[in-house]
Amino acid sequence: MSFKLKALVASLALVAAFPASAAIAPASSGNSSFVLSLIDEASGTSATFDLGVNYNTFALGSNQTFNVSTGDYAAAWTSFMANSSAATREYAVYASKIVGSGAGSRAIITTAGTQDGMSLVDNFTLSTQISLFDTYLGFNNTVSAHNNPLVANGGSYGADGDAWYAGNSYAYSTGLIAGSNNDATGAIGSDLNLWNIVRGAGSNGADAVVTQLGTSYFNLSSTGVLSYVAAVPEADTSAMMLAGLGLMGFIARRRKSV
Predict the structure, then answer these.
(1) Domain-embedded: residue 13
(2) 171 is in which domain, residue-wise?
(3) Beta-strand (E) ranges in 4-118?
(4) Dist CA 160 CA 103 (whole Å)
(5) Which H/E stretch holds residue 242?
(6) I want to staple 176 with a disulfide (CB 3.0 to 4.6 A). Which of 2, 38, 171, 192 is the partner?
């Protein structure tokens, strides 16, 4: 193999070893990244983390953990923790998508509290919220690790409020999901339920379809470990599974005795 060819092969291998772009995928791409956002309204600080999975590939049925205090996340995590107050730190997790138009064309998965107020989200406020979310991601894609092509899934830190999650993605520094009374953020260390909000049929004023994703929830520890706990199967589903396992065991014993 000639020297030039060897050099070309080596260059291609080096390029393949690194991600082409570290940018957070927005909803307008058709399938946004799952994003963890930290905010502290008291100090005006925030941090944003690309979790490396997106709306369509996140395994909702499996428990998962993400450690945002290490690797390419570490700088943003350390800066936020050093410049925020333990009493006022909050977090939220969010992903969204835009595909075509009409019913089902826009959707978000978001952390939030209870059902109270969620039914107030209509198609218009859902679209507005997703647009604000993309604006927020666009800002973060210009700073810190997100604009480094050698970093696959990084973090960014904002010291002056410009990257506030609540200010750019929700109802301006309140943490409320647009058009509802439901706070999407929660204190670090608390459990946050997970919801799916999808554009419904009809005009912009028509109701969006809001579904709580079972008993699934996120929890962010003070050490930087984000845990996703998948929904526990309903009692009747579990009973049917146990009955099926029992029947299989009975059949196996009978075959063995014969």
Answers:
(1) no
(2) 23-257
(3) 33-40, 45-54, 64-67, 90-98, 106-112
(4) 38
(5) helix 235-257
(6) 171
